[in-house]
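Data availability (excerpt). The following record was deposited with the supplementary files.
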Amino acid sequence: MNAPEHQTAGIQVDVPVRQADLGRDGSASTIGMARWLEDARIRLRLRRFERLVGEGRFGPFQILLVGQRLSRLAPAGPAGTRVQVHTGVRLGSGPLQLPDELIADLDEMRLPETEVAERSAATRVPAARLHR
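Predicted structure:
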């Protein structure tokens, strides 16, 4: 996986095309492409947040995949070919009570169409909006 520092649009992961990912016509099936997104999600690392949890400053957590969208830009090659899977986050709406470390990690994965005035963890939502 490419390091987040070198990314300009979310996170990119190279995933090998498996025979099971191909449909009857030899191109990637929707289910196969969904598996690629799962492969990318499993490889994601939230470095700052994981360090915070490791230090005992945040309790147990679980990351949930809320939604996904697939866009096949070109047919995938035969089994064994490597494809690039890009994954990232979109800016959520409403107040969130998340540690600054997690916000910073998620900012690195923000997709380009959601970048709004280069917000960082330090310049996020005012404290008054952090309570549900």
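Summary of structural features: The chain is about 25% helix and 10% strand.
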